[in-house]
Amino acid sequence: QGQLVQSGGGLVQAGGSLRLSCTASGRTFRRLSVAWLRQAPGKEHEFVAIINWHDGSTYYGEAVKGRFTISRDNAENTVYLQMNSLKPEDTAVYYCNVKEGDYYSDPADYRGQGTQVTVSS
Predict the structure, then answer these.
(1) For the segment 42-84, what is each residue's pLDDT rounded down to a tens digit?
(2) Helix (H, G, I), strand (E, B) or coil at 98
(3) Which of 14, 48, 81, 93 stands the most exposed, by the fewest C-beta atoms within 10 Å?
(4) C-beta of residue 11 within 8 angstroms of C-beta of residue 115
């Protein structure tokens, strides 16, 4: 069976950058469409970004648009979330969700374990 392994994250000062990775492994994956979500303490899950397998189309939540970039390395079955100009309100646990298909839709087929991002002011 497959699994997702997340890496990256940590503590950074406001204005800094971090890059998160989400790698699918354990079996042959085809047509991976990936969503990043985040959850801050006491809040609901928030949509961050999507990248679709079919055409590489990307979508971003309003809170991160212009600061975050989602990208992929198909050969490595890895999706990245480059986060620039980080703000304290970006502090959250970040999750990657994977759907095997041309376009991402809920429910996900696989979910990452989550990684903490903390932005200090």
Answers:
(1) 999 999 999 999 999 999 999 999 999 999 998 899 999 999 9
(2) strand
(3) 14
(4) no
